[in-house]
Amino acid sequence: MKNYTITVNGSVYDVTVEEKGAGAAPVAAKAPVVTPVAAKAPAAPKAAAGAGSIEVKAGAAGKVFKIEASVGQSVQAGDTVVIIEAMKMEIPVVAPEAGTVASIDVAVGDAIESGAVLATLN
Questions:
Q1: Mean pLDDT of 36-64
Q2: Whole-angstrom distance, CA of residue 18 vs CA of residue 34
Q3: What distance in Å separates the CA atoms of residue 98 and residue 75, rounded to the nearest whole number?
Q4: How far apart are the first and last CA of the chain?
Q5: Which of 22, 18, 17 lies closest to 6 in space, CA to CA?
Q6: CB-side exposure of 30: number of CA atoms within 13 Å?
Q7: What percent of the chain has pLDDT over 70?
Q8: Would you state the pLDDT for residue 42?
Q9: Cβ neighbours for 103, distance < 8 A, ≥ 6 positions apart
């Protein structure tokens, strides 16, 4: 593995590239791991007393653009809870089922990974 730091449009990234064999070029079939340097780690679910059992997870990696719901708000299945921005698109993350928002585990501007828990419902 080799580590590189690259800059794309003013954003700095640490890149790890895996090499196959002695002195071989990186294998194109396996994508390199790219981690934004200035980005926060994905928010861990908060251990708040009101944290719910139903998780609202990100379907794609990106940045939290807007939080549409608030703690204590009642939501129906399909209601937008958080909007993430990925590849210059706004992607709504919706409630998987009806419930009450128990926690919001991210803030606007947070970098998130696919599958990260953004909020919980009761």
A1: 67
A2: 12
A3: 6
A4: 43
A5: 17
A6: 10
A7: 73
A8: 45
A9: 45, 46, 48, 50, 51, 52, 71, 119, 120
14: left (phi over 0), alpha (psi -120 to 50) or beta: beta
Give me the chain's average pLDDT, please: 79
Tokens of 44: 């861990």
* pLDDT, tens digit, 9 for 90 and up, residues 63-115: 999 999 999 999 999 999 999 998 889 999 999 999 999 999 999 999 999 99
Specify the pTM: 0.58
Domains by residue range for the chain, with CATH: 2-36 (no CATH), 54-121 (2.40.50.100)
DSSP per-residue letters across the chain? -EEEEEEETTEEEEEEE-B-STTPPBPTTSPPEEEESSSPPPPPPP--TT--SEEEE-SS-EEEEEE---TT-EE-TT-EEEEEEETTEEEEEE-SSSEEEEEE---TT-EE-TT-EEEEE-
pLDDT surpassing 80 at residue 18: no
